[in-house]
């Protein structure tokens, strides 16, 4: 119905930090796993098949950079975001040379790390993972940048398209206005939640001009794409009524 939830493996021997990062990522809609060593990371990669790895440079069984090198040699192509307490240019070059995709220096904010992860995933996503999303009779084609409902093309602005895609990619999950604002307008936008309400109203005029309505408001929380129970009952009742009239 929707695209596969993106999986992130967090590799850090400081278990409290690994769990904190993993929890924050789960809140943002990612599926997560953790590992405390390079060896454990290799085992988790095989079973978990992450879309991205967050890797501490200093691990108890060696360097995270060496662990990344071994993963690349074993055929793992998942992008890697390194975490390190060291901020030297040499360390950054070493990490990027073995196939790392970004480098975040400790201490860091979770918001910055999540924004970096999203940016790396946008840069490295494979076309086949981003081609098409569907929900009910709604179709989103990334490659053609096209949206259809009931087979009818719906013209959206780039911002409306990005907002709709984010909602549909997390269909069934309530997203707060702040989460939507951070993702659609980027983490450093610094704008008001009111802009989310405005753009959701724009989307509704176009997407929910068809039945059933898909974009639902959850008071005091945010928005979710789902079919309301009342819409389902209405359709079933309508089918029964039409059968009686035959």
What oligomeric state do these chains adopt?
A: single chain
Residue share in β-strands: 15-25%
How would you state the average pLDDT, rounded? Answer: 82
How large, in whole angstroms, is the Cα Rg?
21 Å
Number of strand elements? 14
Which stretches of 5+ consecutive residues score pLDDT under 50? 232-237, 239-246
Distance between the termini: 34 Å
Biggest sheet overview: 5 strands, parallel
Structural class: alpha/beta
Work out the helicity level. 40-55%
Main-sheet strand order equals 2-1-3-6-7
Shape: elongated
Q: Helical stretch count?
A: 10
What order do the SSEs take from the amino end to the carboxyl end, as H and E?
A: EHEHEEEHEHEHHEEEEHEHHEEH
